[in-house]
Design goal:
It is globular, with a radius of gyration of 25 Å. It contains 18 helices and no strands. By secondary structure, it is mainly alpha-helical. α13 runs antiparallel to α14.
Length: 478
């Protein structure tokens, strides 16, 4: 029988042994996270993410070129509101089903989403080629154009959108803002390449054949995204469970987080304001006399490029400079470890630009400067929302990041749909300058909401840190 003293020594010895072994076990079990991933699959996913954004937001960014063609040639009897509805439908459907896509990504259903996106996008633009008759003036069927490029293609886009940012953030945990920024440049690249490709194909092959060739480009680039978009194996899988259960798709905990709720409202205003200008920039350039619409074969008998600065270049400039903004915002978000600071600053500057440059630009040089600077600011605003969710989400909810991101995009979708329609109504009633004022007002309110969200996040972090210190002190008898 051991004495109390011997028992005390044996307990002390066991505790000492446990303390010696525990660190070794934790070191062996802890995953090693490098600054940059060592697996080639991570960089393949980065390429895939680029082409996903190329074919979702890249195509939405290119819609100004499609709208111009519809308005001037294929669907001249339709109102500006009806034509804006096609692009707004793309934006809405790209965003709203993200609530389901994000949850499926948490369950590692990546390939189902990828294949569905490839199929719907390809079919959407292939069938669009049959919606314009022979491509002659007023031969377009508005209902079929909306159904194919608005509804069908929009549903395909949503499969790739949340997928692109969600996947690279998981592959690059230490460089997630940079990885997300690189991926988002696909939207800017698509916004340059697709308008130019569309104009070239329509001019040289006509609408039906040109759009079929365009659908082949869409198919090939989305196929690359599908093949290389491999999910990160180190992330825990959350099975979907019952598809009829509310909690499967909605995490009620998210909306108890005030900083997240304000952030979602702010991002919604960004999309409602920015795309109002993006959809109307070519028409603005024509109304202000900064450029001329290209002549379309079959309407005047002339070829494009015979006179003046073409209006679609203003859209191409805006989308091109957005790449600079996307990369710059990734750099600053990484350097500051806070993407919402970048959001706040860029939205405030964009509001000033929309208020003062859009209505009062007088020269071609001024218009080009506006498109260049607004493109940089727009790229910064549009590239960081998913990174902002990753920044805001509490540590104990990290496995829900796909669900929270999808919920955000679904909330944003409502304003992405009605924002351009509000701008189109204001333009019809008050003139083109009203589009700039609408955008400026939404951007200014957005900057305030982002700043408010950031302040609440810092307050929560401070309270969490204080609580942790108090708890440790009590546990250790301090």
């Amino acid at each position: 029988m051991s004495t109390p003293l011997q028992s005390h020594h044996s307990i002390e010895k066991r505790d000492t042994t446990a303390n010696q072994v525990s660190p070794a076990v934790s070191v062996l079990e802890a995953p090693i996270v490098h600054e940059w991933p060592r697996e080639w699959k991570a960089y393949a996913a980065l390429v895939a993410g680029f082409f996903m954004m190329f074919n979702c937001w890249g195509m939405v960014n290119a819609y100004g070129a499609f709208l111009s063609f519809y308005d001037q040639h294929l669907l001249t009897t339709q109102s500006d509101l009806q034509l804006s509805l096609i692009g707004a439908t793309e934006s809405f459907l790209l965003l709203f089903p993200s609530i389901f896509a994000g949850r499926l990504l948490d369950a590692r259903r990546h390939y189902y989403l990828g294949f569905t996106g490839f199929l719907l996008l390809f079919l959407g633009y292939l069938l669009l080629s049959f919606a314009g008759g022979n491509g002659m003036k007023d031969q377009g069927d508005y209902g079929l154009v909306w159904l194919t490029s608005g509804l069908l293609a929009g549903l395909g886009m949503t499969c790739f959108f949340t997928y692109s940012s969600h996947n690279v953030i998981q592959w690059f945990p230490r460089k997630r803002y940079i990885a997300a920024g690189i991926t988002s440049t696909g939207a800017g690249a698509g916004g340059i390449i697709y308008p130019l490709t569309f104009k070239f194909l329509i001019a040289n092959f006509g609408f039906p054949t040109g759009v079929r060739i365009l659908s082949a480009v869409v198919a090939s680039t989305t196929l690359i995204a599908f093949i290389f978009g491999m999910p990160c194996k180190d992330v825990n899988r959350r099975p979907v469970g019952s598809v009829f259960r509310f909690s499967t798709w909605i995490d009620k905990q998210a909306f108890r987080n005030k900083s997240y709720t304000l952030y979602v409202i702010a991002v919604a205003l960004v999309y409602g304001g920015f795309y109002s200008i993006a959809f109307h920039v070519t028409e603005w350039a024509e109304v202000k006399g900064f450029g001329t619409e290209e002549d379309i074969p079959g309407s005047t008998g002339e070829r494009p490029g015979n006179s003046g600065f073409r209006t679609f270049w203003f859209l191409a400039i805006m989308n091109g400079t957005s790449i600079i903004g996307r990369l710059a915002s990734a750099f600053f978000a990484t350097h500051l470890s806070n993407p919402i600071v970048v959001h706040t600053a860029t939205c405030f500057l964009a509001s000033l630009l929309a208020f003062f440059f859009w209505p009062f630009a007088q020269t071609n040089a001024g218009a080009i400067a506006f498109c260049s600077i607004f493109g940089i600011l727009g790229g910064s605003m549009l590239s960081l929302p998913a990174s902002g969710v990753a920044y805001l989400i509490p540590t104990d909810r990290q496995s829900h990041v796909g669900q929270w991101t999808g919920m955000m995009w679904s909330g944003v979708s409502i304003f992405a749909l009605i924002g351009p329609l509000i701008a189109a109504s204001l333009k019809r009633k008050f003139g083109m300058d009203a589009v700039g004022y609408w955008c400026g007002a939404t951007m200014l309110l957005t900057a305030v909401l982002f700043a408010w969200s950031m302040a609440l996040k810092r307050k929560d972090d401070k309270g969490s840190t204080t609580g942790t210190l108090v708890g440790d002190g009590e546990e250790n008898g301090v």
